[in-house]
Task: structure prediction
Amino acid sequence: PEIGFQIRYLHFKKIITEHIKKNPRSILDAGSGIGSYSFFLHTQYPRAKITGGDIDKEKLSFSRKYIKLLKIKNVAFSYMDISKQKLQKNKYDLIVSIDVLEHIKNYKQVLYNFSRLLKPGGYLYIHTPHENQKRIFSFSKNWHHEDHVREGFSKSKLIREIGKLHLKVATCYQTFGPFGRFSWETNHVLLGKSFVLAGLLYPLLYAVALLDIFVVDSNGWGIALLVYKPLKK
Result:
């Protein structure tokens, strides 16, 4: 019962259903983790070839076992270091990278790799934490993420780096507004104290979290960005 994942999923679903009208044939879930977004993409685009890539071999093993259990044929998972390996040009119609960039030191190389992998007319969806996150509860202000290279980005910085790669912004706004912040932080605190209590209050907090996709807040804790690669003239 992790509210943060649900909020990221809600914004992801909203943006791709509203902006991507042509079904992609090839999709990359970059930093796929346990494969949650890859499985959603399978339900959304059952005819697409979907690749989940990650550097965590345990998570890749779990994902592979899960697709075998569910007998899913159009999703495959492979080891992929998106910041280093030589990548094929113009390969994917859609690339998804959700809460990955904050873990990577050389994020500019990753953005360049994404632009290279993307087909003309293809889309890149990025979600990442905002660099300035003001906690609601005073006892939770010292939170930090040991696995993050940086806490996040500013919206202007992310758009500026994207612009250097000649990618065009389809939509960009901040997520985790007041409803998202309250539900996520409350859920996070509860998970640290009592998993049972967190589970009992989860339905209520999830109902509050649903409001996040309707309220755009310039102080939101996350950034959702959809860009596209212009068609060649």
